[in-house]
Amino acid sequence: MKFYTEEGDYDVVGNNTPVFFIRDPLKFPDFIHTQKRNPATNLKDPDMFWDFLSLTPESIHQVTILFSDRGTPKTYRHMNGYSGHTFMWYNADGDVFWVKIHFKTDQGIQNLTRQEAVKLAGEDPDHATRDLYRSIEAGQPPSWTVYAQIMTPEQVENYRYDSFDITKVWPHADAPLQPFGRMVLDRNPENYFADVEQAAFSPGNFVPGIGPSPDKMLQGRLFSYHDTHRHRLGPNYHLLSVNAPRGTTETNYQRDGAMRFDANGQGGPNYWPNTFGGPAPDPNAALPAIELSGAADRYAYELTDDDFVQPGNLYRNVMTDQDRENLVGNIVGHLRNAKQNIQLRQCALFYKADIDYGTRVAQGLELDRKNVEKTASLSQEERVKKTMP
Ligand code: HEM
């Protein structure tokens, strides 16, 4: 989402799930490679997909949501949106609050079963785009109520999880959803290429009052998107009408580059500081300082059994019997195409999240339950050793 505010563009580049597969941005390129095609066969490869996920146990929460029916929303109108990361909100006095944003669909959540999804993928792969376009055209604009979960710095300091870990949610009991707005999609693009294909969203586009958190994944994203925009759209992508601010004018000292199609700063100064009346930095855009401690170093995130608590609770306490049945069926239908040693390694992770969950996936894959249980009881290092090809 891009908000054309009076203080510049603010983008929310989130997802339809509240968590993500990894919490270390260094793993992101590898994760994306596993979603691509096998370099030899040029086929989507279940071994690549599940090998990586089973070697990345922190993915289990997102995998559980992705393979539930929420992974196949019925239409764009029937799904929620989430900021995922925690962000900083600060006020004029420099008070800091940590915030997660939720966009809850006013149409209600509706999902497809895998049988419906498989059918639609063949018969009408554009159904979701058509549904959204037609609803808006027919004067039935979909809307979302927008909520914030808010924690103070003291709460974050004492929280039982790392509040900046994107593989975890903040349970509503810890940080209740507080409504603060409504988003209505009431206008279709006039030209798809100009308005959608050329749009450039970045989690690094902030306006005064909003800033990033120390979430390492978010820190990894702050530069990555603009790098891509320069590659995908060119160095002056920010001047394209869909990306340029509408509530104010962009003032900076950037000049030149291919496809520079405005006046390029005319004869004004192209450096700061200057005594020729060029624009000054906005003091309101300065973020409040946050306290940091510890050694700056390169280190792997620790794997902990905490990673299995929230997916286990989701499976046991939030899902219905039907949800659980569909989840297990969706997983088995996909994981059965991977090699057996990978199946075993992944199934052990489901078992660690919840015994019933792991047992049912094991049954569907015709794996020996005792062996899954034994594999689940090992440390990740031992598990990997045991399940080597
Ligand atoms: C270190 C982690 C990540 C990196 C380096 C990364 C990088 C990227 C890049 C380079 C793009 C293409 C942007 C473009 O062409 O305009 C992209 C697209 C996207 N990413 Fe990420 N990403 C990361 C994690 C995430 C997470 C955690 C979320 C959601 C919470 C997310 C949501 C999206 C979305 C929605 C798009 C599509 C944007 C569009 O179509 O304009 N990404 N990502």
Low-confidence stretches: none
Distance between the termini: 44 Å
In the CATH classification, which architecture of the largest domain applies? Beta Barrel
Superfamily (CATH H level) name of the largest domain: Catalase core domain
Give the helices and strands as they follow along the chain.
EEHHHEEEHHEHEHEHHHHHHH
Total domains: 2
Query: The CATH topology of the largest domain, please?
Result: Catalase HpII,  Chain A, domain 1
Q: Could you say which structural class the secondary elements and strand pairing correspond to?
A: alpha+beta
What coarse outline follows from CA principal-axis ratios? Answer: globular
Name the beta content range: 5-15%
Oligomer designation: single chain
Radius of gyration, rounded? 23 Å
Helix content class:
25-40%
Bound molecules: protoporphyrin IX containing FE
Largest sheet: 6 strands, antiparallel
